[in-house]
Every structure is written in C-alpha cells, then in structure tokens.
Amino acid sequence: MRITRIASDRSHRGSKSIYADGEYLTSISAEMLIRSGLRVGDDISEDTLQAIQHSETVLSAKTTALRFLSYRPRTEREVRDKLREKEFPENEITAAIADLKKSGLLNDAEFARMYIQNVLAARPVGKTVLRQKMLLLGLDRTTAEAALEGTFKDLNQEEVAMEAAVKFVSRVRNMRTTVDRRKLRGRVTSFLARRGFPWDVVNTVVRRLLTADQLKEDSE
Q: Residue 181: which residues within 8 A CB-CB, separation 6 or more?
C-alpha cells in the first residue's frame, strides 16, 4: 500500500486521516504521525500499520492514565482497573503501564511509603489497619510489608498509639459526660484495637495512661 493522502480528521480533533491507494486507511494522532515519520508517497505494510495502531492505542492509554494520576498518586492495580474500565485492550494496558513504571510515574513501593506517611500524619493507626488499606488499594503483600517495616523501624508504634489514645480521651471528656474508670479503659482499649494496634501495644498504652492517671474518673 502507498500513502496517497494525509488530512485532518474532522471527527476527531488533533487526529490525522491516512489514505492509501486513494482509500481511507486509518486515523492516528498528530503526535503519532510525527513519531512514525509517515509521509505521502511512503509505502506502508500491514505489519507497519498494525504496529502504528498498537503504539497509538498505548499512547492513548498512557494519556488516560496520566489524567487519572493527576488527581492523586495511584497503585498499579488502580491504573490497570481504570484502563480496563475504559475498554483498552489488555496488551496495550500492559505496555502503557510498563512505560509509566519505566519513567517513574507509577511506583507501588513509593506509593506505599507515601501513603503510610500521609495516613499517620492525619490519623494515627497501627500496622494492621495500614496493611488492610494498602491491600484494598491493590498493593501486593510483599510491597505493603516492606513499606511498613521501612516506616516503623524508625517509628515507635507505642508512641503513635499513645498519641491517638490521649486525643481520644480528650474527645470523650469534652463531651462533658461522666465515664467511670473501667468503662473509659474499655473504650480506649476498643478504640486502639480498631485503629489496628497490636494487643501488646494496646495493653502497654492503657497501663501507661492509668499510671499517669489519665483515665481517672471525671469528678465534674
């Protein structure tokens, strides 16, 4: 086949229609046309056409993924699921994701590290909750565990739990309701457990609060 005409595609802004031997052949983006180097008078084989169409779809998938990533960082699975939702072929999705990973725009290990830091800064929680949240976002267990170990090796989980417990007790007391010592202790214990702190940390923190007389019965 020989390219006989290249014209703007009126139905798709920014695309070019390619004609071969006087008949419409395909439409590709202006960017892909430049990348391919195709010109009027060039011969084009079926294999070359398929390769260009594959590259065009990969480029479109990458553009969609980048738009999705512009709102916030995403895991590889989130991006893959989004592209599937847009009905991109699986091979092109894999190729687009590989390009994004190569350029550093998609990195599950970095995502996990930043995710943990952001969650802890906003709402102190334990490893269990963090692990569950990351797995739900599509991170594999190995990546999640590595990020947890990397974060908590320099972080005292007991102090994180203590910070959360003190804030919780303060909120309970600000409600101006009388809570006896035993009930308050139970509420703190349940609160820390829900936040994903291990039982040994929960028990230690509750004992520290009791020792510091933080859970004394309100006298108001």
A: 215, 216, 217
Which residue has better confidence, 188 or 142? Answer: 142
Domain ranges of the chain: 1-44, 50-105, 108-152, 157-211
pTM over 0.85? The answer is no
Q: What does the pLDDT look like over 3-32, one tens digit per residue?
A: 888 888 777 777 888 888 888 888 888 888
Q: pLDDT (tens digit, 9 = 90+) per residue, 92-108?
A: 999 999 999 999 999 99
Tokens of 191: 């609160």
Segment 116-125 shows an average pLDDT of 85
Output the 3-class SS for 61-102. Answer: HHHHHHHHHCCCCCCHHHHHHHHHHCCCCHHHHHHHHHHHHH
Backbone angles phi, psi at 209, to 5 degrees: -65, -40
* Residues 157-211, CATH architecture: Orthogonal Bundle (1.10)
Query: 197 in the Ramachandran plot: left (φ > 0), alpha (ψ -120 to 50) or beta?
Result: beta
Rounded distance, CA 196 to CA 206, Å?
Answer: 15
Asked if the domains at 50-105 and 157-211 fall in one CATH topology, the answer is: yes
Angstrom distance (rounded) from CA 163 to CA 157: 10
Tally of CB atoms within 10 A around 164: 20
Fold of 50-105: Arc Repressor Mutant, subunit A (1.10.10)
